[in-house]
Design a protein that fits this description.
Elements: H1 2-29, E1 39-48, E2 53-79, E3 86-87, E4 94-111, E5 116-128, E6 131-140
Antiparallel strand pairs: 1-2, 2-3, 2-4, 2-5, 5-6
Length: about 140
């Protein structure tokens, strides 16, 4: 119950950040003296919802009008106590795209076990003024 409440609060905070960032990105895009810098914010969480599932939530915004923003979330694992992560081979990455927006909210669920460490690799791709940019982020599992 406590984790669900924390997860709900995190999602609400991410939505507020996304709205604020979208407003700032719109303002920046309409000022000819500011050069767009692509992805300007990325808020992320990766929380175990049970002993076998974890929820990933990613919110990102671009600095200007973009034909698309794509979020790709890949589950990675490592042996307990290790920091050497690799992609989980039997779990496909989750990919979500929005078009003609300045922000994206991507949520998905991944299988987990108690015998490994987990994190997500997040790749956010967008296009601003004809330039495609991908930024990569990581978030470790919170149990």
């Amino acid at each position: 119950m406590k984790k669900k409440r924390i997860s709900t609060i995190l999602v609400l905070v991410m939505l507020l950040v996304s709205v604020f960032s979208s407003t700032m990105a719109w303002a920046a895009a309409n000022n000819d003296t500011i050069d767009p810098q692509s992805i300007v914010t990325c808020t992320k969480s990766f929380i175990a919802t049970s002993s076998t599932k974890a929820k990933a939530t990613v919110s990102a915004s671009s600095s200007g009008n973009t034909p698309y923003i794509t979020s790709k979330i890949t589950l990675q694992s490592a042996a307990l106590g290790s920091t050497r992560f690799s992609n989980v081979s039997n779990v496909d990455p989750d990919i979500y795209t929005v078009e003609d927006k300045v922000a994206i909210l991507h949520q998905c669920t991944f299988p987990i076990t108690s015998s490994k460490e987990y994190r997500i690799k997040i790749e956010i791709t967008d296009e601003v003024n004809g330039i495609t940019t991908t930024k990569t982020y990581y978030q470790e599992l919170s149990r």
